[in-house]
Write a structure and sequence with these properties.
The complex is a heterodimer of chains A (154) and B (596).
Chain A: H1 3-10, H2 19-29, H3 37-47, H4 51-60, E1 72-77, H5 80-84, H6 87-98, E2 111-116, E3 128-130, E4 133-135, H7 140-153
Parallel strand pairs in A: 1-2
Antiparallel strand pairs in A: 1-3, 3-4
Chain B: E1 4-9, H1 12-16, H2 19-32, E2 39-44, E3 56-59, E4 63-65, H3 70-82, H4 103-106, H5 124-129, H6 134-142, H7 145-155, H8 167-176, E5 183-188, H9 197-204, H10 206-220, E6 224-229, H11 234-249, E7 265-270, H12 280-287, E8 311-315, H13 316-328, H14 330-334, E9 344-351, E10 357-362, H15 367-374, E11 384-389, E12 395-398, H16 408-413, E13 422-427, H17 432-446, H18 452-469, H19 475-491, H20 495-499, H21 502-510, H22 512-520, E14 533-537, H23 547-551, E15 557-560, E16 563-568, H24 578-582, E17 588-592
Parallel strand pairs in B: 1-2, 5-6, 5-8, 6-7, 9-13
Antiparallel strand pairs in B: 1-3, 3-4, 9-10, 11-12, 11-13, 14-17, 15-16
Helix pairs in contact in B: 2-3, 6-10, 6-13, 7-8, 7-10, 9-10, 9-11, 10-13, 17-18, 18-19, 19-21
Classes of the chains: A alpha+beta (154), B alpha/beta (596).
Chain lengths: 154, 596
Amino acid sequence: MTVEKKVILQKFPRSPDVLLALLHALQRANPQNYLTPEDLALAAEYLGLPLSRVRDAVSFYTMFSLRPRGRHIIRVCESPNCHLAGAWSVIEELKKVLGIEVGETTPDGLFTLELTSCLGACGVAPVMMVDEEVFGNLTPERVREIVRRLREEG
Amino acid sequence: MKRLSVLLCSGSACQSSGALAVKQALVEALTAQGLMDEVQIVETGCMGPCELGPILLVYPDGVYYVRVKPADVGEIVTEHFLKGRPVRRLLWTAPAPEPRTIPFFARQKKIVLENCGQIDPEKIEEYIAVGGYEALAKVLTQMTPEEVIAEITKSGLRGRGGAGFPTGKKWQAVREAKGNPKYVICNADEGDPGAFMDRAILEGDPHSVLEGMAIAAYAVGAEKGYIYVRAEYPLAVKRLEVAIAQARKMGLLGTRIFETDFSFDIELRMGAGAFVCGEETALIASIEGKRGEPRPRPPYPATSGLFGKPTLINNVETFANVRHIILRGADWFAQIGTETSKGTKVFALAGQVKNTGLVEVPMGITLRELIFDVGGGVPEGRKFKAVQIGGPSGGCLPESLLDVPIDYESLKQYGAIMGSGGVIVLDDTSCMVNVAKFFLEFTADESCGKCVPCRVGLRVLLSILEKIVRGEGSEADLEELERLGRMIQATALCGLGQTAPNPVLSTLRYFRDEYLAHIRDKACPAGVCPDLIHYEIDPDLCRACDLCRRACPTGAVQGTPRNPPYRVLQDLCIRCGACLEACPFGAVRKVPGRKG
């Protein structure tokens, strides 16, 4: 176990109900934004749960990934309001600029493109979230600009 | 004392349209003019009209600047703040009006949203300055738990999460339940697409929720509370963390609050992307660190909830109402609204309506007043067709029902639900079969799979709708949709499945003609379903510019430049509409019905 992971674990009480929060923290600490088999085993051991119980929970929630993802996760809202406001054109533009399909990761490991349920910023639809930042009033041009900036930042 | 206050909306929507860059520009411009000592900048929660963001509200003038860009800020500072002349081109409505006379606000009655957009949500002092935590002090020092429950019961407050269960009755059940400890949970897993009132309250006035929870905890006898909030709302999570820390520091959460024997603390829990977790038993399973699957009720959470203990679970907006009822009294609250539905409800207006955003109106207002007075009606040149109310499990109501009052019972009677308060206005460019299919895709996708009626039934409903939009449906399919829909309503395990057929059943009830057009005439009257439309080029308008031919991805447009007319080869056409978008003369037309 790395020191870093030990530090994460120690922030949590050894109580099974903190499982989701612990998994969020482990996933966030991974530059590739996913839960490794080692992470699952660590969580199980630390909380005194069977590994099957941890996998059971992980497989239920869409925000946990068992496969490596990009450093930045771009999530485009696919809810009705965004759909009506042209989210599809945003998704198409992202596919084009990133050269990947929804659910895939760019070869340089920088971006993963995903869809999300409503982000609750419907007044400025279409909307997407990059990591924890929300971007609204999207147009294909604006999307290109945001991706370009993220690429520069690395 | 500052001469001017500039309230800058910093809700998620305004942040996403550039509010933080505006703030930076404002600080720079004020510094450059040496006005930093005279003008106070307050970052507030959601002001409501999100599509107009970023928004500045300047006091004492009370003027709104909308769609402000960083480049506009210099002008506002020099013209308005320095010379006292509001910048007309950026005002919401010129000349500067009294905010309450703007039609968007005139019909609203703000109770739970009172502080949203008026105070800095990250400063507990501002909340306290407007009467925050007074209600908690009152119940702890002057009221018994029984009196608190009696007051809430008398007010007629009902759950704002959708089902409308009487809040006082729920509190009573938890108070009387045997078992210790007891828990209070705030359901902040706002998953309905298009509904964002809970996010706005959490981001704009988080302490009102904490205070409501503390009052509830005192009433039911709990010492521990949880807020379960969606991971999709990072800003709400951050503001709640700040609020909880500040409340603890001031002794408003923790042990011996207001030097009484009452102790209460709140823990924040995040979801991980599962719509069904908004259902109370699924939410409880998720807080316990398990798969968020619902379970049959009874037992209800009131008797066996979190960790098997008596648990009170209410929605964000419900808790935010509590302090107002305690301070102003049950009688005051009960005189707002209708016989069975008291107080106000926050709605998220969206779709084909002029003013979108968050609005709070008294219960009993009609759909027409909500959509046309507050919302400003459908945009010019369009015709109102339906209103979809209650989220993905809500129903679509037609124009003939616009005068129905908005209360729990009336909406249910006509096949819609209050739900979380999402309102999507649809105009004549929407196909009702397609709308029903869209919502069903959502609920079928979010079905957790535990019970058969929801897991399999919704898939079957969806496959029938898919058949109809392809033009392969029969009239017998409509009866099957109704039969199966009613069966799912009656047999699904939780609220998700029980309400999921609503969009299908309500559109069948009010827009059967459109279904029949898809089936009998193989035509989509609104021109939405690609298999049931075709494109034609009007020979009189075509100038043979060749743009449509070049735009067509399948070579379905034929013609010779400068030699009109062009025509569409229906066999090759995939009905993508590229020719229609390309034509500068309006010669390409989308026509309902199949051809070729």
